[in-house]
Write a structure and sequence with these properties.
alpha+beta; rod-shaped; 64 residues; two-stranded parallel ribbon; 2 strands; 12% strand
Length: 64
């Protein structure tokens, strides 16, 4: 019984953060969910994932 209560408590703490997390896709041509790496970083929240597709990223907003 204690293990089941512990599992429910952990699920209630972890699940909301997981459900609210977003994935930001950034493509070198500026399409995707965000036009640049910097814009994606500024828009992302804790727990979000920034996914870069294959290619060469260039420009001031895609460095440092």
């Amino acid at each position: 019984m204690r293990n089941r209560l512990f599992a429910v408590a952990v699920a209630l703490l972890v699940l909301p953060a997981t459900v609210l997390a977003a994935t930001w896709t950034v493509k070198p041509d500026g399409t995707g969910d965000s036009p640049s790496i910097k814009a994606a970083i500024l828009a992302a929240s804790n727990g979000d994932v920034i996914l870069l597709t294959d290619g060469t990223f260039s420009g001031a907003a895609n460095r440092d």
